[in-house]
Amino acid sequence: MSDISQRLRRYFLVYTGSFLLLVLLLGVLERFGLPPHWIGYSFLFLTIILYASIGVIARTSDVSEYYVAGRRIPALYNGMATGADWMSAASFMGMAGTLFLSGYQGLAYVMGWTGGYVLVALLLAPYLRRFGQYTIPDFLGERYGGNAARLVGVGATVLASFVYVVAQIYGVGLITSRFVGLQFEVGVFVGLAGILVCSFLGGMRAVTWTQVAQYVILIVAYIVPVAMLSYKATGLPLPQLVYGEVLERVEALETTIFNAPAELEVRRLYRERADAFASRIDHLPESLSEERQRLSAAISEMKSGDASMRDIVVVERQRRELPQTAAEARDYWEGSMRQAAERGAPPIHHATPFPGASEEERDTSRLNFLALVFCLMVGTAALPHVLMRYYTTPTVREARSSVFWSLFFILLLYFTAPAYAVFAKYEIYSGVIGSSISELPGWIAAWSKVGLVAIEDMNGDGLLQLAELTLNPDVIVLATPEIAGLPYVVSGLVAAGALAAALSTADGLLLTIAGALSHDVYYKIIRPGATTQWRLLVSKTMLLIVAVVAATVAAQKPASILFMVSWAFSIAAAAFFPALVCGIFWKRANRAGAVSAMLVGLALTVYYLVRVQFDAIPWLGIHGIGMAPWFGIQSVSAGVWGVAAGFVTLVVVSLLTSPPSQRIQDFVESVRYPRTMR
Amino acid sequence: MSTTRNARYWRRNMIVTAMLLLLWFLVTFVASYFARELNGVTFLGFPLGFYMGAQGALVVYVFIVWFYAYYMNRLDREYGVEEGGD
């Protein structure tokens, strides 16, 4: 045992050392004139080749190796793999960006995505390891008996993990399109190949060791740029410790910028624009034809005058993009109105919690913050791809320490994210805001092309005001090295890190979905007598199908990454948490209770999420289903209702029906102790 | 005989779990609830409310998970339910 772990440590150190050397080497080559796109290519392809080699070396045809890595991953490495599995494109790219845009409110993600591990450690991991099967639906099936709980579990696994995996593949497309210059859709499928090489041949064993490798890359890539920024701003390369001081400077800059006359003017103009949209919406449907006539008149006037062809084309496009029906126009203009109103609203200081115009609004904002933290935490403790990782440790004891190592490795990044946001804000507020629009740095143009940055000279003064700059949250991490003028090798490193984060999470998720479908549905329900070869073949086929479907969905560029991921948390929380926790801690919980709790929780969450978020689902021909949120809770926190309803349903239905059999009560007893009493 | 020992082991597990969950609840929800008030205090150069969300709560989480592993591993040995060494 110690021989193996020593060999592992040696491999690990050699690997980490060579990665750092590679980064330094590319940095030196850049000094000697290696063109940037070569650096981008080197990072992307060298890392993907690395993952592929690990995938090939660790290939396996053993079922236990394929599903749970033979249950011999030491706690430390399982912690690292869980860290990579856990930290997704959303953590890597989206979180610092969200913190940048919403300040204190973004801390809900920092707390939620770490505090959830407390629940994993105390309530789930050791017991699941003691149970020691292959998937989460396995546990539900065994604990509650029959196929119903297992099937509902499979459904919820697929639903939550699929939303999540689409977000990862979307992230891969974004990175490859920006750094290698591939078309977004092509980038998505290149990324797909990168994901499949790891998981297809070696299953969990290959994915685990790839994830360990990916963790190293992603954490180095995340910390290096902030450390450099920190050194630049404060003279100390320890961003996590010194950003309090920079936060103070940011707050001072904010006070100056927020109250500058030009900013006030720009915000007033945006509010006027919002009002104009509001009055147009009030005057539907006449206003739609008026608008079309107005644009037509403008075009003919421009054509007869001496307007440039480019201006005419712009207006013609506006006319072409005008909605066709009054209902569409309402949706379209309401969106534009909200956007304009947001930019016209007074901005919020970075460290201010729960902003709002009135005491009531501030209370709602606080309630939403707490609800979001709750959903993210419970969701963390219910996501099958995370829980599954604790099946891979050798013992219950190692499972417990493995949660500690997971949280430790995750913390390294989550400690840094708020610092990242503050340093990026400092760079942008002190360096970019107020400069001339014609002389803006190159990164703005580069990222505008991908559609993640937009500027609009609202007041026509030729200078960039804060309210005129639109940044997509995903851009902050990817663009910070360019924003701060760091060498291009740092940008390449960040791209490789983001890619590692997205690929590692996607691998874990695909394996979870394929495992649920092949192990739980095919092997446990359809053909219990299937041979090992068949089981693996089915699993690999499922993996391939799910991966291709997910990539196809991601190529449609659905809503922002972080947003979609938050849905997965609410869904998983409501579906799994009550049934899993009561399954361990309450012997009286029975099948009827668990199945109805999962269904009620899931249905309520999806119902709330859809009705609060959407007023219409055009491709289903549904309109006017929007509803006012209950107590002002936003759709991302829909899980609050689902989890509560799930617990209530479970208790009530279990008590109304007969208690579970003695065999099942003994089973519950058995998972509570690491080993039967001597 | 062994059933009462089982019950005692489980009860001690429940007590430590409940206490740690209470700590988790305090640093997460109670501290966030009063974030605005806490921001009046400066800690290591940060407004305290912001610091709790960004770092303070996280440190406590790691401590909770570490302590639970440490305590339970010891309890396993005490009650003779630890797994054989491999």
Report the strand count of chain A: 2
Amino-to-carboxy terminus distance of chain B: 29 Å
Radius of gyration of chain B: 18 Å
Mean pLDDT over all positions of chain A: 84
Structural class of chain B: mainly alpha
With strands numbered from the N-terminus, the spatial order across the biggest sheet of chain B is: 1-2
- The proportion of strand residues of chain A reads under 5%
Number of domains of chain B: 1
Main β-sheet of chain A, in a few words?
2 strands, antiparallel
Please tally the helical runs of chain B, counting DSSP H or I stretches of 4 or more residues.
3
Quaternary assembly: heterodimer
Could you explain how this protein is built, in words?
The complex is a heterodimer of chains A (678) and B (86). By secondary structure, chain A is mainly alpha-helical. Chain A has a domain of 34 residues. Helix content of chain A is 76%, strand content 1%. Chain A contains 25 helices and two strands. In chain A, helix 2 packs parallel to helix 20, helix 6 runs parallel beside helix 15 and helix 22 packs parallel to helix 24. By secondary structure, chain B is mostly helical. Helices cover 78% and strands 5% of the residues of chain B. Chain B has three helices and two strands, in the order ααββα. Chain B has a two-stranded antiparallel ribbon. In chain B, helix 1 runs antiparallel to helix 3. The two termini of chain B are 29 Å apart. The interface between A and B is large, with 54 and 46 residues.
